[in-house]
Amino acid sequence: MKLKFFSPATGGACGIFEPARKAGQKRRAMNFTVLTIFPEMVDAFSQHGIVRRAVESGTISCRTVDIRDYTKDRHRTVDDRPYGGGSGMVMKPEPLAAAIRDARNAYPSARTVLLTPQGRGFTQEAARHLADAAEDLILVCGRYEGIDERVCQGLIDDEISVGDYVLSGGEVPAMIVIDAVTRLIPGALGGEDSAEKETFVQGRIEHAHYTRPPVFEGEPVPEVLVSGNHARIEAWRLETSLVRTLLKRPDLLLERALTPEEKKALKAWCRKVETLVAD
Prior knowledge:
This protein is an alpha/beta fold. It folds into two domains: 3-183, SPOUT methyltransferase, trefoil knot domain (Alpha/beta knot); 215-277, Orthogonal Bundle (Trp Operon Repressor, Chain A), CATH 1.10.1270. It has nine helices and eleven strands. Helix 3 (93-106) packs parallel to helix 5 (149-155) and helix 4 (124-133) crosses helix 6 (171-183). The relative contact order is 0.13.
């Protein structure tokens, strides 16, 4: 697979991003380097859950770089007033550029990604592309009003946005990218097909879930789930997945062609609705 990525400098597709593995070749660890002025935030995140287990198993590595370590003044200043006036502050180019270059020296083939509202939207497909490419990532977390444009033009390979809203900095988006990508790396999750059955992977919301007790506040678990009939269970899961998607995120179904199995399940549900509303 060869993937094209956005270039902030040109505004168009930039370069070719190829997977690092050949057929039969063992996958190496994927390295995430996060450049931030708040390394404690990301360090705490990487010490829990699936990301922690992936680090311990050698599936990924996750390290932080404190941008303030690259400042030259005793106040460890990383921001300054914007030229032309205006509100807010801008991240200074000198310490950020030095931090990026140092991270690139450690991982020469890494892709440098700026987390910014002006980036391309981060979707499940984008996460899959990054996981399949298996290239190291340097994630740059901006703060204040943003970073000096000269850093964007000269040292950033890609820009990613996690949504059309404003956050205080790029740390939370960086953690989102790490979590979403890590889940798609083989071996990171418990079950071999766990990631393939999650919401968005198949273009629809995941089916409803139930666990013990069998009755909670008068509501029982659907009979089909305790029937032991695996074919009925799978059919029920497909139907509830489609119905939940239709009710909550119909846009997901409108964006793609339905499979014959999905059409059959939706038609069966429509017949149930028609029976309910019939005079």
